[in-house]
Structures are given as structure tokens and as C-alpha cells.
Amino acid sequence: MRQQKEIEVAQKEADKWMMISDTAKLQTERAEFELEEAERLKKELLGEVDGDDYLKEQVIELRYQNHILREENRSLKDKLEKAYEFMKQFVIGGINLLEKFMEWIGEKVKDVGRGR
Q1: For all residues of the chain together, what is the average pLDDT?
Q2: DSSP letters of 47-99?
Q3: What is the pTM of this model?
Q4: In sequence order, which residues have a C-beta less than 8 Å from that of residue 84 and are 6 or more positions away?
Q5: Count of beta carbons in the 10 Å neighbourhood of residue 75
Q6: What is the pLDDT of residue 10?
Q7: At what angle do helices 53-88 and 97-114 cross, to 10 degrees?
Q8: Of 59, 109, 102, which Cα lies nearest the Cα of 80?
Q9: How far is CA 26 from CA 19, 30, 38, 54, 116, in A?
């Protein structure tokens, strides 16, 4: 009985480490893909931009930063949408939490407009 319990505990621990390993592997593969994509984009941009190398590098950096900001914006929009969906699940006084939140925000905006 005790050995069976120890085996189960060891199996759960092994499963946990396998999940961690799989996650790390996927993250590594994604990072490698993104690095390859960045290198490809850099080569492509260097061919498109006229002027000295400094200006080319600046254009590449700005485009890269723009790409990062777009990705972050998309991620934040996804998180906000998930939060809204989560809030819709809870009802307070016949109104879901999202609607209640939106009402509260509307009141705060009105208060700011009145100079409070």
C-alpha cells in the first residue's frame, strides 16, 4: 500500500516535470522561430531601405518596436476580452458584473466632467 502511494507521488512529480519540459521546449521552438523571422525581416528591410547603414538600422529598429507594440496590444485586447467574459458570469442584483462595472465607469466619467 505504501509503495503504491510512493509510486503515485513519483508519477505525479514525473508528469509535472514532463509538462514543464514540454512547455520549455515549445517556448524554445517559438523563440527560435521568432529569431529566424527577425533575421529574415532584417535582411528584407536592408534591401528595401536606401541610405547609410545607420539609417537602415534605425528603420529596422523602429519597425521591430512597432511590431512588438502591435503584438502587446493584441495580447492585452485578448486579456481584456477574457476578463469581460469572466465578469459576465457573475450577477449582482439581476445585472452581470460587466454591466455593473460599465455603469460605474460611466459614473466616474460624468464625475470627472463635472470637475469632481
Answers
A1: 82
A2: HH--S-HHHHHHHHHHHHHHHHHHHHHHHHHHHHHHHHHHHHT-EETTEEHHH
A3: 0.42
A4: 98
A5: 10
A6: 78
A7: 120
A8: 102
A9: 11, 6, 18, 35, 51
- Report the length, in residues, of the chain: 116
Max alpha carbon distance in the chain (Å)?
76
Rounded Cα gap, residues 105 and 111, in angstroms: 10
Nearest to 87 by CA among 74, 103, 71: 103
- What's the N-to-C CA distance of the chain in angstroms? 69
pLDDT in tens, 31-82: 888 888 888 877 777 665 556 777 878 888 888 899 999 999 999 998 988 8
